[in-house]
Amino acid sequence: MKLRNTAIALGVGAATATGLSLLKVNKEVVIGSTAVVTGAAGFLLSQKKTTQDQTAQKNIDKFTEMDLGGNSNEDFIAYWDLNEFKQLLQKGIEIGSQYFFLIKNVGVCLFVRETDFIGTRVFERDEKELSIHAEGLNDDALFDLESEEEAKEFDRLRFESGKLYEGDLCEWFQISDELFKQVNTKIKEGYTRLKMIVKPLELDETKFSEEEIRDLKDKVFTNNLRIRSGGKCDISPFNANIKFQYVSDVDRIDLDNTYNGKSLFITNALAKQLVEKKAGDVWENHFEALRNGELEDEKENYEKAIEYYSKAIELIDINAIGFHKRAKDYLMLSEYEKALKDSDQSIRLDSKYYYYGLRGTIKYYLNDYGGAINDFKKSIEINSENANAYYFLGVVNEEVKDFESALENYSEAIKINPKNAFAYSKRGNAKSELEEYKSAIDDYSQAINLDSNLIDAYFGRGNAKAYIDEHEDAILDYSKAIEIDPTHENSYFNRALSKDEISDYEGCIDDLNKTIELNPENASAFNIRGLTKYNDIDDWDGAVEDFKKAIKIDPTFARAFYNLGDIIYDLADNADNDETKYMEEAIEYFTKALELDPTIEEVYRYRGWARNRIGDYENAISDFTELIDLDENNAEAHNDRASAKIELKDFEGAIQDTSKALEIEKNSNSEEFSEEAYKLRGQAKKELGDIKGSAEDICTANKMNLEGWDSIIKSDPEASNFKVRAGIKKDLDDIKGACEDWKKAAELGDEDAAKLLEKHCK
Asked: In angstroms, how far is the first alpha carbon of the chain from the final one?
């Protein structure tokens, strides 16, 4: 009995399904090392203007009071690990940030946070921000979060970064999917570091008169002290000249200046415009509502969270994150149409890769598999390192029976994240569907190594082992799944099938009873229990009851109708039963089975036999013809049709069918149905007066029958078997051989054989 993989429900958690919170960061939110930064930085430590009429001369006086020192002509250079920079960008994309910042007054640090410039406080959730330090700061610039003073300073910067705080976060850079994809590409090409070059600062001539400029041009404003501020700030008269490069062991290449049509570097003017555009209490209230929604999400109060997200959207309807978060919660509540509508809107407003991932998941649940596939592919196009998108793309491809593609998708997910137990388990499912059972078992085992409580992996491995007839081992896996979850219905069901295969019929029935206890509407369990009672433990009344129960639960269950017809057919052989009545009832069930599924070949055979037995030969011929149409090389069906034709005195037609059956048997090197074919053809030839041809066919049939009984007696030398063979030998005019068999049967106690011996063998 071949097992069937049972569908495994797709579990979608808030994080993995939407692409949120993929990068876990500690409270300190700092990655990277500290050592020595090469070069010196040209910058000017200036104070914020206090009045609009502050003169350029006062600025000059302030400049000249500084102890500048250092090498005035060297560039300032800093490096970041490119993989860590990739994490920074990915984090920024995930939390909805559009920018990363360069912080100087606590060291050379790149920083992202959820709010770019709105709000006066920092969200408490740790995963809302990430920072990385350059590879090296000189010791006096070491940023040590263990220091209470530095920790407070960093908290202040995080607080102020929401408002474009002048002097501390002077350089802003655009985050974009295009930049993220480029970083991915460069890592694959062998680039390992991001290099930042800050040229000695140049005077912004637009802020001074010609006379002031002439005076300042003779002065150098650089030093090699700890960097505390500078760069492109409104309070500074200097232009920042910053360049980024990808660096490998053998090459370096400049980052592009524009991504997705936007400048990499955000000027003061643009920053000011953005801040002013988004300022106001409305945005504060918008973010407050989003935060409250997230708090409710954490408590799985999705209805309440939706109320907050709806309020946030009502306040500001141009921020994609509100629609995205509400779509996620609608998905969690199985309100798929509402989820899709919000997800569409979030993508119209922004094209984050995880927005497409969420919409793909929603479309999966709406059975829009083509749309889901397109969205997951788009998510991967934006972020080729998106393991979740590959994983769910595999799930959808499994659903549409494209197991080769699913296998590739899961392999990509594993390549990106080799610790994903679910991906190994699902790849095992795909391999099982492709009948790569040994390899599937390896994947399930790896999944179990990663997660010893992963029920799907035990269940899948059990199925794969059952397919290759390792039923005892399969039973162990099903049992482990049941140990983890005593309510795992499918494991009880499939364990029952494996127990049936090793003839543990009592155990099979016990597991099917448990399956039905867990799910009284499991029609398949009733059907299989009926078959076991029918075939293995001779509880035919119980089998009839189970088949009828299966049909009641599922009136479209074609196999259950067939099985019920089959057992009714056999009950007709009971001497106490009315054969015609039972055959007519069996025919009704067979007919219903074929109405539901006209491709079940054996139903035509049994209905044809039943019709033959009640003398309905024309309809029997119709059934055997249908069977031959399904399989023209079915020798048995040709014989069956020949038998019905003989009853209707169509002897020519019977000869044609039996001759075709013999041709099929010869071509397939088989003799399974040849004896019956010769016997029927001999009968038809006799009716047509071909006595010689009839005798030849009957003799051939008897010889084949004799060979068959020789094999039977060899394995089972009972008196009755010797008596039957004696009769065959007599028909073949082998009286001596017949007498020998009667004698043997008589010696074994058969009284009829003794009488035949006395009559024919004096």
From this structure: 54
